[in-house]
Design a protein that fits this description.
The chain is mainly alpha-helical. 65% of the residues lie in helices and 0% in strands. It is built from 5 helices and no strands. The longest helix is centred in the N-terminal third of the chain and has 16 residues.
């Protein structure tokens, strides 16, 4: 049987990413502009389709005004 990468912890992580963005009052497009990436990338990480490297998590935390630990 194939193991799913979508664990409870991963679901909680992506939920926190989206919640932090909404609390910051930002759209996905605005986040993408601040990070120099695409809106599609932001959408895919919030959907759990892409994994977030530590460097990008740190950048997202700064944009959202959160500590990295908030997401973990």
């Amino acid at each position: 049987m194939k193991k799913s990468i979508h664990t409870k912890e991963r679901s909680a992580f992506v939920d926190r990413l989206k919640k932090a963005r909404l609390e910051a009052g930002l759209t996905q497009a605005e986040v993408a502009q601040k990070l120099g990436c695409t809106q599609s990338w932001v959408s895919k990480i919030e959907a759990g389709e892409l994994r977030v490297e530590a460097i990008w998590l740190n950048r997202l935390a700064k944009v959202y005004g959160k500590k990295v630990e908030y997401f973990l």
